[in-house]
Design brief:
Blueprint: E1 2-7, H1 17-24, H2 34-41, E2 47-52, E3 66-70, H3 76-88, E4 92-96, H4 98-102, H5 104-107, E5 113-116, H6 119-132, E6 138-140
Length: 151
């Protein structure tokens, strides 16, 4: 099974470096770790492809079986656009991240599955369920996640 994990583009700076770099004539981009972390949590029998839309365009014709979209609140509209476009192409879409965790109702109609909270235990469990064809519409972390369990 192939999974495509996407970090949507945004025009907002999170680090405060954007203005300083512009004054110095330099470019700076620090990719969020969410898609890399989720890729690291994915068991080896899955093939994972990463797409950071700040760096490259989304391949809408992907042969991935599952599309994962994550992001923060300023990316919420783009997250929904991406999910809707892939679902219109017949792809299953899972949405997670801090924005989905804070505002799940915003994403419910755009996703087949929501991952709410930290992914360390939820993502592998969801993948087992998805592979078996019996996934839930929502997976919610209610406990504490130990950072030693994160790749």
């Amino acid at each position: 099974m192939k999974i495509l994990l996407i970090n949507p583009r945004t025009t907002h700076a999170f680090t405060g470096w954007e203005d300083a770099c512009r004054m110095m004539g330099k470019r700076f981009y620090s990719s969020p770790l969410a898609i890399a972390t989720v890729a690291g949590l994915t068991p080896p029998e899955y093939t994972v492809e990463l797409c950071d839309e700040q760096v490259e365009q989304i391949r809408w014709d992907t042969d991935a079986d599952l599309i994962g979209v994550t992001g923060v609140h300023v990316q919420r509209r783009r997250m929904v656009e991406i999910a809707q476009q892939f679902r219109a192409r017949g792809k299953r879409v899972v949405i997670g991240g801090s924005s989905a965790s804070a505002m799940p109702d915003w994403y419910r109609s755009a996703a087949d599955v929501l991952i709410l909270g930290e992914a360390e235990s939820l993502w592998p469990r969801f993948l087992r369920d998805f592979t078996a064809g019996r996934w839930q519409q929502e997976y919610r972390e209610t406990g504490q996640v130990d950072l030693k369990d994160s790749p």
